[in-house]
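Q: For a teaching session next week I want to show students how multiple molecules come together into a single three-dimensional assembly. I've collected the sequence lines for a complex. Could you give me the predicted structure tokens for the whole thing so I can convert them for display?
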Amino acid sequence: MTTADDALLADLKRVLGDRVRADSAERALLRRDASVFDGGSAGPTCLCESTEEVQRVVRIALAHGRSVVPRGAGTGLAGGAIPLGAPVIISLSRMNRILEVDTDSRNAWVEPGVVNLDLTKHLTPLGYHFAPDPSSQQVCTIGGNVGNNSGGPHCLAYGVTNAHILAIEVVLADGEIVTLGGLDAEPSGYDLRGVFIGGEGMLGITTKVAVRITPNPPAVRTLLLSFDTPRDAAATVSAVIAAGIVPAAMEVMDQRITIAVENYVNVGYPRDAGAVLLAEVDGLPDGVDIDAQRISDIGREHGATDVRQAASDEERMLLWKGRKTAFGAVAQIAPNYYLHDTVVPRSKLADTLEEVYRIAEEHDLAVVNVFHAGDGNLHPLLLFDGQEPGIYDRVHAAGAKIVEASLAAGGVLSGEHGIGVEKQPYMHQMFSEDDLDHQERLRHAFDPACRSNPGKVIPVGHSCADIQSLRNVPEEVWG
Amino acid sequence: MSDFAKLVGAEGPVTVVGGRTRWHVGGAVHSDAREVHAPSGVVSYDPAEMTVTVRAGTTTAELTATLAGADQRCALPERGGTVGGSVVIGENHPEVSGRGWLTSSVLQVTYISAEGKVVRGGGPTVKNVSGFDLPRLIVGSLGTLGLVEEVILRTNPIPPRSQWVESHDADPFTIASQVLRPSAVLWNGSSTRVLLEGHAPDVAASLNSLTSIGSWSEVDGSFDLPQYRWSLQPAELNGCSGTFVASIGVGTVWRDEPQPRPALSPSVIEISTRMKSNFDPTGRLNPGRSAF
Ligand SMILES: Cc1cc2nc3c(=O)[nH]c(=O)nc-3n(C[C@H](O)[C@H](O)[C@H](O)COP(=O)(O)OP(=O)(O)OC[C@H]3O[C@@H](n4cnc5c(N)ncnc54)[C@H](O)[C@@H]3O)c2cc1C
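A: Of course. Below is the structure for the complete assembly, covering every listed component.
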């Protein structure tokens, strides 16, 4: 360890005591998030417990010429939270208090480390929930949801995170504390709150969030439709949307993942179906019955071989448990997976899905699909054994083709996981130099010196300031 | 390069004229600014996809009519003017709870930068987190960061039934506990109008539950709304007096006099000032007008 590191650590310890971690085990752990990317060496990790502590840590990092990386639960899938250039890691997971719930105005103030599902559990007895429900909701944090503008199965009707955030307290990269947005109807000025969401930690550090809370619907109907092929399931999804129905959720799983899920949860998912569609409608009792019937009819018109409606809340919960644990169930098939995330127009779902299977075959890889079909959000999981020599090259090559196919279908790079380092190399395929230049200008308005999570999202080489702040680290630092 | 980009050019003060329905918002544009008009027309509309691509100079009336042809609608307020104007003003529809927030409905923006370049942000699909969110920056920016040429908007099905009802004795603040997702609850101090939307049996059921808190009659539409919008917290609305219409649960209040501009914090002003100078270093876009 160098004298520069010693001085940095000493300053951080003066603020946080033993809540600064710099041992090699901790640093190794934080090289990664839930993606396949390895960031290299993490600097010291600061377990902050208040906004003021975050502010002081940011200022100390600044004084030592080091960048900062905010981190929630580290479940991000695009490498957004991995360290580049030995930054100071600011962990928000200990700031996990629900500060205030106002059911009259339907909002709540929470700290960024609150786990998504914990918030909903807290709200359930009051008759409310937090609408964004990523499949990782048992562990991911509200700060991470804001960072990635995360979605979830039920974001089809309710909207992704951005639609559910009213105000955000942020510690900017220069240590200033600012509140973006407000609890009033249409806060004046530029929508800096809206812009900040999905900023992947590059616009500042979230230290407090005012979320909208959503009343629980009195009636819910959950349908499980079976099909011979994923194409039929996808065509049903397009037809439901085209019929003017906006279900609360529409999720598709192909046969291979359905079998794995069924082995895991044992709730009666059909093992012989080529694909299943889990569709949910909520609202008042009469209307949900009408919509459930229409979805069932549309499904049968598009080749559904079986339509089953969950008979009880318990059955409904089990079906959802199956869907939400799908990624865990994948472990039965292969030791490693690479989860992709692109969006295509809903009318192109069936074609793109077939293209995905073809690409996987061409690269000699197994693939399963489990995805947010209702908004055209594909999630192909490429399955492999990470021990196999050269395997990652094939996985990345197939991934690149999937991205290409999605863009060619009129789609976009990411629906909910973000760009991070994963999709950085593809940004030029979707945006022109001028487009990227303007994204960069937006970023610089928040963080002119590129101190917060530098080196992500905007393609490497585009921003001189980013490279500068990564190079500022003394060479031998942190091994 | 588009014709609009050529028209805007790269030099000299320039302002876009829409329908002039909100010309006063954000301050008077300098008189030496050259006036330009954005192109108009619906470029493509795919009802099954629930998105529409529309040029900024299109009137909201034309867009509304096009969407209605396929039993759809969008989040833009239907108060006259143009699509581009409405997007940069950023006001929500008075029935925002039924229509959705404007900021969430602008999926992609194409605008001309201060340097005269065509810039695109966001994407064509209903879900997208590819890079920093330029559409949300442009909504409500009053044309101070870029001049909008085209947008892709999310559309929504028009519900099978929409019914306004009015009560003179119901407490407007208890309605949310009686009705799931009313599309609007408007109160003028003496009576309350509620917009119920959805399947016909749901609307009937909602109306039925409303009778437990007052007596109701069907009416043709909303109140006439005073000219100026105030942005308050929902919890502040019970203090309203004088001539007003308040959107309960949302916080918007319409009044005859404008709301005094709330003071923004120094840090917000600092970010906003940097934003403006990063996007428009010479201050040529709508000079004199400010969004903050
Ligand atoms: C099994 C599995 C299922 C998943 N399912 C979904 C899904 O259905 N939908 C979905 O959208 N995502 C999903 N994800 C991805 C991931 O869970 C989400 O992106 C989640 O919101 C990340 O939260 P986190 O707390 O883990 O954030 P991290 O991974 O710790 O961070 C994510 C990003 O946000 C930044 N960040 C974190 N906290 C802050 C803060 N306080 N201030 C500023 N920036 C911050 C980080 O720097 C990073 O760029 C899934 C992941 C896994 C592993």
